[in-house]
Amino acid sequence: MRIDATSAEFAIPTISWSDVPSVTVAQMTEVDRSAIEDFGITLLQMMEQAGSHLAELVSAETEGALADRSVVVVVGPGNNGGGGLVAARHLANRGARVRVVLARPVLRMSEAGRHQLATLIAMGTDCCVATYDLADDELGEALAGADTIVDALLGYSSHGAPYGEVERLLGCIVDADRPIISLDIPTGLDPDTGGALGATVTATATLTLALPKTGLSRGEGPNRAGRVYLGDLGLPEALYTALGIQVGRPFAAGRIVRLDGSP
Known about the structure:
Rossmann fold; 10-stranded mixed β-sheet; 37% helix
């Protein structure tokens, strides 16, 4: 293990990618199911962990210079988007100028996502829906003017190429050519194969959750994911053991670790 960071204050430990197993969509689906059904870890608990770690990574990637920094958080309709909304709250609390851009209207989001959005609205955070509130030129201007874009559009459970409102917003992100930090996997990347499914984010860094997804190290994955970090969701080793996944203790050095080398 070594320390890898832009400054000592925001040091993130580095471990070898070969020290942790990568998982497929089917395996990660079982991990999430078991966490909720067998161990009583709620979706909102895991979402809070994911979003707070994501905000911490944005801070580390910007050397802690969040005060008055413009961050646009692009949010999909599912639980990955909910993690992005948690990150938006933490980033705003740390002084960033946060704007949330939703891919779809509130009633077409997951219940957990709506829960997180309600808190941001109560805080007075700038939130809008891309397709309904912003014309193409306005959306492009908002993204191009960001210091950092947080990609929380689609997570590991997405199937096939993005479409509809998500595809439109994804295309605008790609065109903006700004530093992007993706949650779990860059949007547009197949989480199993690493195939680029149409327009695909090329991230500066990716925070994958619990265990790395196989697509991050296959196909286009290494070119699209940027620096890959692993975030702890607090899942017990017993959970993985019951599913036949041997994980060891990847978070012994810290709750966010950077993955180095080859899987």
